[in-house]
């Protein structure tokens, strides 16, 4: 790709810009996907954004210039993060509490890691970038039959006053699970009383409508931002590994699997605040220790960086579950979209933290470690959602400590 469009010498700045613009697309997608699915439904936006990702990835194969490839790549980024966020919200709203946690950690994250592991495998055997892109795009077509299998979120339908559609989905689920459904699911008088409130449209400012909600939102944005800086900063600043680049990429994916397993185990049995805070403390403290390692102990440095990444990766995967449990149905997807946007800002800024290493080798680790520990302390002031039902209204939102 670099040689085909001569992205070398005076034009070598175009290669990293392509990646940066992809993250810009991811940022835009994070911002708008939540608002779109809160307004038009989880299922509709999920399949729309999957179509955008697959369709524009396919168009990239026929790119005739770097400019065309980059613009399409930005749009692919918008679709990619949007369907990830919406699929996560849809799954958490459909599934029960016990299954929700395993879906949010092992389900979503482990399958993300498996896809990450398959990438170097595909790239090893398919060296032509157009054919590789085709091989990575085709699996998107297998998602089409899922339209007739995946239901809309009953919680979202109820929040929009569409009780009959929600009842059909709930009764079908009860039948599949062999659970007898009550004769009356929704009281008619109660439905009419709540209808005006349920049919209201949420806007971004609703995330700041009261002091309590605004405090939770601001703390969540900071938490996602600095966790992302730590995650991507460590990924980018990991000392160069010797050996095969494809194997190294594979190992980088494998190391995230135990982090996701630990996150699942913590979410099953421990309060959210302590689980997220504890893993952030682990990641941040280990990274701070790197400056004490002698220069010739490179293997130990790599080990500490990967242990730090393990802690921050575990915290990152738990943030989705925690965020979902803090916000009511009306703005839940919007809240995850907003915090995910803060996360993308963190990923864009992370390379600049790494760049500080040109002035002092340990400065990036000192900054990332300190910020990660501080954000771990801030997490302790958020409400505890462990064992609480998902809030349906702003009045049911938990209070900050």
TrEMBL record:
One of its GO terms (cellular component) is endomembrane system. Keywords: ATP-binding, Glycoprotein, Ion transport, Membrane, Nucleotide-binding, Transmembrane, Transmembrane helix, Transport. The keyword Glycoprotein applies. Residues 1-387 form the Major facilitator superfamily (MFS) profile domain. It is found in: Endomembrane system. Its main location: membrane. GO terms for molecular function: ATP binding; quaternary ammonium group transmembrane transporter activity. GO terms for biological process: monoatomic ion transport. It is a multi-pass membrane protein. The chain crosses the membrane at residues 15-33, 45-62, 68-90, 102-126, 132-150, 213-233, 245-267, 274-293, 299-322, 362-382. Belongs to the major facilitator (TC 2.A.1) superfamily. Organic cation transporter (TC 2.A.1.19) family. PANTHER family: SOLUTE CARRIER FAMILY 22 MEMBER. This is Solute carrier family 22 member 4. The lineage of its organism: Eukaryota, Metazoa, Chordata, Craniata, Vertebrata.
